[in-house]
Amino acid sequence: MIVSGKPPGSLENEAPPYADLEREWHVLAARDGLSLATVRCADCERSLLLADIAAPEKPVVAIAAGVHGDEPAASWALLSIVRDGLLDPSFAYRIWPCTNPSGYALGTRANAEGFDVNRSFGGDGTTPEARAIVAANRGCRFALTIDLHEDYEAHGFYCYEPLIGGEAPLGRAVVDAVAGAAFPIQELDDAFELGYPVEAHHVRRLEHGRVLPTPDAEIAFSAALPYSMYLLKNGLAKRSLTLESPRRLAWDDRIAIHRVAVVNALVQLSDVM
Ligand SMILES: [Zn+2]
Questions:
Q1: CATH classification for the domain delimited by 18-272, as one of 3.20.20.150, 3.40.630.10, 3.40.190.10, 1.50.10.20
Q2: Cα of 39 to ligand 1 centre, how many Å?
Q3: Which of 35, 61, 179, 209 is 20 to 30 Å from 259 at the Cα level?
Q4: 55: CA distance to ligand 1 center in Å?
Q5: What share of the chain is helix, strand, coil (3-state, %, to 5)?
Q6: Average pLDDT per consecutive 10 residues, the chain (273 residues; last block may be shorter)
């Protein structure tokens, strides 16, 4: 594991201020090929960063982080992935660096109004953040969407990969790559809290380090759609990976886990396309 000055198991909010994240993205935007926009949320004094790495003819991968404001290392991992040139240049990218900036600033899972943005993607969106993202993504088509999270209960990495046409060809190798980098993998069973009520256990299958939801069943179960399910339901994304680093690990380890996972997800995507 990467040596860090912060002790493992630390759950204090060690995140730099949101203004620092914004500033770092503006520094990156000066580089060729990355266009940075500020997407205003209607009805509130809030805006979202949106970075596009455009490449006509190439399949587009969407990557988002920070929909839960108390999972800050996900947003900084995404920044580091782009800054260090880890994105496979055979794809174009649409990047949402932090989709819940008010929650980030408060250190809360929910946004400033107390709503879980990742349960607000039904219809045209039921939070200002979701409405802004749905409007900006209209007409987009993604070969894959990747959503970066952190989990407070987990001791190891795990991911969600919805079954599309009965297949989930990406996540197994991602889990193996994270394990290969000497990070722990989460054992998943019915006792592990995944946010599904007991009566919804039929909408997902569990493996070592991977949750395999059936999108139609999950979408039918609740109208309060997560970001990834809105993209799948509306045909905007062909496949989806949601990555979860264990919040109890040190900051640098959580960032390193996301870097390994995203890089290997793109390797797998290249193989199946
Ligand atoms: Zn989360």
A1: 3.40.630.10
A2: 22
A3: 35
A4: 30
A5: 35, 20, 45
A6: 40 82 94 88 92 95 98 98 96 98 96 96 95 96 98 96 95 98 95 78 89 86 88 96 97 97 98 91
